[in-house]
Amino acid sequence: MTPSSSLVRTRAFQARSTGSNPVGVAKIMYYVYILKSLRDEKHYIGYTKDLQQRIADHNRGKSSSVKTRAPFLLVYQEEYSSRLEAIRREKQIKAYKGGIAFEKLILQDKREQAC
User: Fold this and answer.
1) Helix, strand, coil share (%) of the chain residues, nearest 5
2) Domain definitions of the chain by residue range
3) Contact 81/90 with Cβ under 8 angstroms?
């Protein structure tokens, strides 16, 4: 199993929007994700439109901030229909990174996957 192919439950969230999506037009989704470095066991939090490509980029060292920490394993993800909502959630998760709320988020998702 490659680091980017791990099984992770996706949590989908609808943005609070009054706009409509025209019939037949694909809705762009944004993902907030948490990666765990297999090298140093630390976490990385980010958001993207293309989750698989972003994980591959991280693992190929294309992100200078984490290139020395590859390979990564996807441990958590959430899906949003709005870029703004994804950015807000990313900032919220980063605010409690390393704290009790962050650990609860990761542990809760692991428990849900076990069921």
Assistant:
1) 35, 25, 40
2) 3-16+26-114
3) no
Q: What backbone torsions phi and psi does residue 72 show, to the nearest 5 degrees?
A: -120, 155
Angstrom CA distances, 51 to 19, 76, 103, stand at 25, 11, 22
The torsion angles phi and psi of 88, rounded to 5 degrees, stand at -60, -45
What is the mean pLDDT, run by run of 10 residues, along the chain of 115 residues?
42 48 72 95 95 95 89 95 96 88 82 71
Q: At the topology level of CATH, where does 3-16+26-114 sit?
A: GIY-YIG endonuclease (3.40.1440)
11: helix, strand or coil: strand
Look up the pTM and report it: 0.75
Place of tokens 């692991």: 110
